[in-house]
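Worked Example 4.2. Read the sequence first, then its structure tokens.
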Amino acid sequence: MIVEVFKTNVQKESEKNYVIAVIQNQFPDYKINFDLEDCDKILRVEGVEPQYNDIIDYVNCLGYTCIRLD
């Protein structure tokens, strides 16, 4: 399994749940979670080969910033 980590500007629990639901709908095999306590509002996506560009596109289309961290 590979874990991709992203910096976001998601602030609220309701926003977090919405973003997770959208990504999970497109990629049902991914394990997805947020760390809203972190200053970077971290989004973690775990999967066999996570398509990080698609994840960034989905989050951006929802109106949020999403930057892959190396």
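Now turn to a second chain, presented in exactly the same format:
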Amino acid sequence: MTYNTSYIPQSDPPRPPWETLPTMYDLPSDNPEEPGLPDDFHFLQPLLLYLTFQPTNWNPELVYSAADLNLYYDLQHPLWYKRPDWFGVVGVQKLYKGHDLRLSYVNWQEPANPFVVVELLSPGTEDEDLGTNRESAANKPPSKWEVYEQILRIPYYVVFSRYTNELRAFQLVGGHYEAMTLTDGRLLMPEIDLSLGLWQGSFRDIERLWLRWFTLAGKLICEPTEETAAATERVILAEQEAIEAKQEAIEAKQEATEAKRKAEKLAERLRQLGVNPDELG
């Protein structure tokens, strides 16, 4: 007996697991109970700021910066802290009391408060970072905005969103933050002879828009690998120039030899014609 199987429904082949399992977009690093946990960008961007924070009018031994380090700010509530994505301080040694790596930054034990703070915005931390929700309950820690502006009185507060590439900054004026305007695309901080702006390029082989330190005049401050690459390029250019100079010297010598040979040949020809070339003026 022959059966017609043309009407038997065919099941779809099973989908590979990677098409059905949650992706990194479904499992972000942010924790609703502890927002702002670091991702790749929160590691690389502060690292770039750390490597290039070089105030030219300060002794490098008195310049300190840190990323994702607890910042304790209230002696009345010593367990309260904020954790900036990055902050820089001038007038402070790199080591705690000159001999130990810091476990945290305790403002009442340090000679100076941070001079500039950078926060990298994310959906879970935007209200806290920008102080848009300022309803502080009794015995509850204030927002980052309030701490930076009213308690630590940090002169410059910078926020950057990698989602919108928007850069905003605030300067402490008369006890409160006022929005800063960009000058040639940069935020000027003349007290430390630096400026901060956006730069399109590759850092750690990642091409994107990065927040970077510049000199006050606008010259990009290189991080160590860029300095090495620039030094290597200078050596290569110097070697090329030396080779070109040597080649030019060889060609000049060849031209002089050829000119001398032609002159001797002409002199010999004149002698054959009965003319003494030495008597010619």
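Notes for the reader: The chain has a mean pLDDT of 83. The chain has two domains: 17-221, 232-279.
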